[in-house]
Amino acid sequence: MPLPIVLIGAGGHAKVVADIIRKTGAYEIIGCTDPRKDNALISWGIKYLGTDEILPDLLQTGVNQAAMGLAGFNNTIRRRLYEKIRELGFIFPVLSHPAASIAPGVRLSEAAIIMAAAVINPDVTVGENVIINTGAIIEHDCIIGHSAQIGPGAILCGGVIIEEGAFIGAGACIIQGKRIGRGAIIGSGAIVIEDVPAGVTVVGNPARIKP
Fold first, then answer.
1. Which of 33, 44, 57, 148 is 20 to 30 Å from 104 at the Cα level?
2. How, if at all, do strands 48-50 and 101-102 pair?
């Protein structure tokens, strides 16, 4: 019997997460929370439950599964919200689209979300609250830190390290063995051939720090 789950957030990204939840067959979405009642999930038949303030009451009804439906450049906000809701007592399961390819030896942590056509090759470690977007390729032995986000179609070659909260834009490519610092932003389409320091934004081919 599917477990009841609440979706945190109700924008465009939440629609993709909702689709994954439904296709796994393991959970039943009872509704979503969001600061705005006017949200993208109404047309999907997903009930608006209110703001996140209702979550403690929801927990008392026996619903203790949750899924993050937030994305965006600011991974710090997403991390703080995840930690706050987890501290209430909610469990964030790993959610993986049936059309994703996950090799043996991959370690997926709580709240990781793997989208359609993503490829994760052997001995990759994926931290908590990580998003691996549609069509991303994560090669062997990569390490992805907590609350990082890998954009659609991005490629991490073998042995890449992505530190906590980094954002890898759509279509970016990071060559083997490089390290992306905590909270760094890699622009869409960037080709990264050197380590990237924490907190900077890099763009272009080859990627350079944005002034």
1. 148
2. unpaired
CA 104 to chain centre: 21
Tokens 């959970």 belong to residue: 27
* Cα 190 to Cα 116: distance, rounded to the nearest angstrom: 22
Whole-structure pTM value: 0.95
Please tell me what DSSP assigns to residue 73: S
- Give the C-alpha separation, 164 to 128, whole Å: 9
The SS3 call for residue 119 is strand
3-state secondary structure of 169: coil
Beta bridge partners of 96: 114
Active site residues: 140
Structure tokens at 190: 């960037």
pLDDT of residue 79: 95
